[in-house]
Design brief:
single chain; alpha+beta; TATA-Binding Protein; 2 domains; 32% helix; globular; disordered C terminus; activator; Mediator_Med20; nucleus; transcription regulation
């Protein structure tokens, strides 16, 4: 999962269309849509403590896994629960409070090209588009490091110089089996990066 910068002189939407055209020129077929969303929760006790930041928990959903809900801590574990976890979070509001207006999501089109699955998404916070996400999966392989060079080669064919480096989550995996939670960790890192990029101009407006 990686971020693609907006092309010079173009909008987010125009850049997404440009990438989509490149994929379709390669021969990729549209396979429906996808969505990944993320809500941020603060540990409630720390909110009132001045100068002390509470631990953040990210509750995420992915349309590829409609019956699951993912709860992640930064640099921490990834809990995979069933979809009812959202109702549990409402009951835990004494411990975790939802950071309102902080929901971020990526939605877009799924493409299939031979054994590759590509998800091209527009990242939005509230009504505005904040960035572009690209998720690429090589379906036959479950050991991430075994197919990284192949993934790189394929990504270069439509992302060019914006092909990402090896994700940090791979470093921890070595030769173990890649899981849906690893994908969610990468989306969490991407969303946090996009949030940080947006914070500076927003503060100036206020």
């Amino acid at each position: 999962v990686s971020q693609v910068p907006v092309a010079e002189g173009k909008s987010v939407q125009q850049t997404v269309e440009l990438l989509a055209r490149r994929l379709e020129a390669l021969g990729a077929d549209k396979q429906g849509t996808f969505g990944v969303d993320c809500e941020t929760y603060h540990t409630a006790g720390a909110i009132g403590t001045q100068g002390q930041t509470g631990k953040l928990m990210y509750v995420m959903h992915n349309s590829e896994y409609p019956l699951s809900c993912f709860a992640l801590f930064e640099n921490g574990p990834c809990l995979v629960a069933d979809a009812n976890f959202d109702t549990l979070m409402v009951k835990l509001k004494g411990f975790f409070q939802n950071a309102k207006a902080n929901k971020i999501e990526s939605r877009g089109t799924r493409y299939q090209y031979c054994d590759f699955l590509v998800k091209l998404g527009t990242v939005t916070m509230g009504p505005s588009a904040r960035g572009i996400s690209v998720e690429v999966e090589y379906c036959p392989c479950v050991i991430a490091n075994d197919c990284w060079n192949l993934l790189m080669e394929f990504m270069q064919s439509f992302m060019g110089s914006h092909t990402p480096g090896i994700p940090s989550v791979f470093g921890a995996k070595h030769d173990s089996v890649y899981s849906p939670g690893d994908t969610m960790v990468q989306y969490m890192e991407l969303f946090n990066k996009i949030r940080k990029q947006q914070q500076v101009p927003v503060a100036g407006i206020r």
